[in-house]
Structures are given as structure tokens and as C-alpha cells.
Design a protein that fits this description.
Length: 303
């Protein structure tokens, strides 16, 4: 069965194969959909390519299976934040990961002993899952700021933040210290996945943005709205990018990437976590995962 709740990317240039399987259902916005799956004989990365030809009411389209469509491909800053686009998740060996034997530098500005993120009730951490704008705001508020008063009443001006929502106080606080802002219509979109560009802006503002003229990443163009924030973090050594010299600003940032960058900023030291038997572990993160130590450090105290 096709996942009809997924929005797929159009590809009018594809060649359809001869094998065909008929199926039908309802797509994510309630339209009737009929699809023919075609399998090409050519193998790519040891897997067969599959295409589907879809008939949607009232529009007929040919679309590609497995690639989510970008709802907004803009690289311009709307108001003060960009509307991030959906992207394929980076492969595990392409993450913004620490180099072998790389040590985080001690920080006098932040508390390196803080536990600022946790897993899920089922014992999972979901390292490769995205984080929402609200979730990241909460993590950054606790990890990188010291002014949040749990007893103080904060008021948010965002039109889509209900005062009873779990993130209402966090977002109002982050808004008050001027490190987050919303969209031209006054929304914050708290449940929207946050991109690496949006993440960089918030972190840079919290950390004390400093202008520079670097040109660190090949895919962060001069006119990209978040270039100055990304380059600020790169100059400070907080972000490293990918082995191919890219930063992938429009990719949604993953939970593993978030903790790796924050740990680098606050100076988490892995020597406090090695060979301990009292650590909280996660059943979906083994020692072979590239971010294993960063996930452990983010979710456990030094001692």
C-alpha cells in the first residue's frame, strides 16, 4: 500500500517501466487518488527504483515515490525567519559530527553539567528524527540561557501560541530576550520542523552574534538570509558542516545534530562519561552510532 498521507515531489521527466501494480486511496488532503507503480529494471544502490503515476482529482500528476515535496523553497528571510523546506535526512556518515578524538573546549559561559534533553517513554531517543521549532526553543532555553524564571508569567505575542500549550512560557521567554521571532502574519509555527538555518540563527543570537566575512560553506550563498548566523557559528567552531563542504541550511536538523552542536558550545567533556555504569542509555542508540557519546552527554550529568 502507498503512504497516501505523504506529499511527493513531481518529476515529469521520468521513464516509466513495464512492471505495473494498481492501487488507490486518499491522499493527505482528502483527494481521491489512483496510482500505478512502475518498477525500473536498473538498480541504484542495490535497490530498485520505483515510480508511481498518480491520478488525482481534479489534477493529474506524475510523481516520484519516496521524496517529500518542498512546500516552500525560499531562501529569503520572511520577516525575520525563513519557512524551512522539507529535505531528505542526511546519511549517517554525512552528519555534522565530531572528528575522531576531537575534544570540546571548556566553556566559562555555560553550564557543562546540565541535562537538557531526554528520550521518549519507550526508551528511544530517535537520533535521526527532526525537532520542532518549539522543541528546539525549549532545549536552547535550558541549555544556553540562564534567565528563565519558572515562577514568572511570560506573555507571547505569537498568534498561534495558545497560553495553555506546554511551550507557551518557553516561547514567550525566548521572544522576550529577542532570540526568536515569527513570520509576517504573526505566527511562530511551533510544531513545524526547524531547519539548520533557523537553528543557527537562534543559537547565534543567544551566543552573542558577531559579524564576519567568512565564506565557509559552498551551499550557503552570499544572499542567503541566515548566512551571517551560520558563518558566526562556524568561526567560533560551533558548527562544522559536512565532509563535502556543505552546511545544508534548508535541511531539517536532527536530534543528534542538535545535541552535538550544543555540547560543543557548552563544553561537554566525554572524560566524565566514559566507563560509567550509571548512565541513562537508549535502546535505539548503540555505541556505533556517530553521535552516541554526544547523546549520552546531553542526557546525563557529568557525575
Amino acid at each position: 500500500n502507498l503512504p497516501f498521507d505523504t506529499i511527493y515531489e513531481e518529476d515529469d521527466s521520468m521513464d516509466l517501466g513495464e512492471e505495473k501494480v494498481e492501487t488507490e486511496g486518499i491522499d493527505g488532503i482528502g483527494r481521491k487518488i489512483k496510482a500505478s507503480i512502475y518498477k525500473e529494471g536498473e538498480e541504484i544502490n542495490n535497490t530498485n527504483k520505483e515510480w508511481i503515476e498518480v491520478e488525482k482529482e481534479p489534477v493529474n500528476k506524475v510523481i516520484k515515490v519516496g521524496t517529500k515535496a518542498n512546500k516552500d523553497n525560499s531562501t529569503e528571510e520572511p520577516g525575520t525567519n525563513t519557512n524551512g523546506s522539507e529535505s531528505e535526512e542526511p546519511k549517517e556518515n554525512e552528519e555534522d559530527k565530531p572528528k575522531e578524538n576531537e575534544e570540546n573546549k571548556p566553556s566559562e559561559k555555560y553550564d557543562s553539567d546540565i541535562v537538557y534533553i531526554d528520550g521518549y517513554e519507550n526508551g528511544m531517543f530517535k537520533p535521526d528524527s527532526n525537532m520542532t521549532r518549539a522543541e528546539v526553543s525549549k532545549v536552547l532555553a535550558y541549555a544556553l540561557t540562564k534567565g528563565l524564571d519558572e515562577n514568572k508569567e511570560y506573555v507571547s505575542n505569537f498568534t498561534d501560541v495558545n497560553e495553555d500549550a506546554w511551550y507557551a512560557k518557553i516561547l514567550a521567554y525566548m521572544e522576550e530576550i529577542k532570540v526568536i521571532d515569527g513570520y509576517p502574519g504573526g505566527e511562530f509555527n511551533p510544531d513545524k520542523p526547524i531547519t539548520r538555518a533557523e537553528f543557527a540563527k537562534i543559537v547565534s543570537l543567544i551566543d552573542g552574534f558577531e559579524e564576519n566575512d567568512r565564506d565557509e560553506f559552498k551551499d550557503v550563498k552570499t544572499n542567503h538570509w541566515a548566512k551571517k548566523y551560520i558563518e558566526d557559528l562556524a568561526k567560533k567552531g560551533h558548527v562544522k558542516g559536512y565532509p563535502d563542504g556543505s552546511y545544508k541550511p534548508e535541511n531539517n536538523i536532527t536530534r543528534a545534530e542538535v545535541v552535538t552542536i550544543i555540547n560543543r558550545i557548552i563544553g561537554k567533556d566525554k572524560k566524565f562519561y566514559e566507563n560509567r555504569k550509571d548512565l541513562k542509555l537508549f535502546k535505539d542508540v548503540d555505541k556505533e552510532h556517530w553521535a552516541y557519546m554526544d547523546i549520552i552527554m546531553a542526557s546525563n550529568k557529568n557525575k
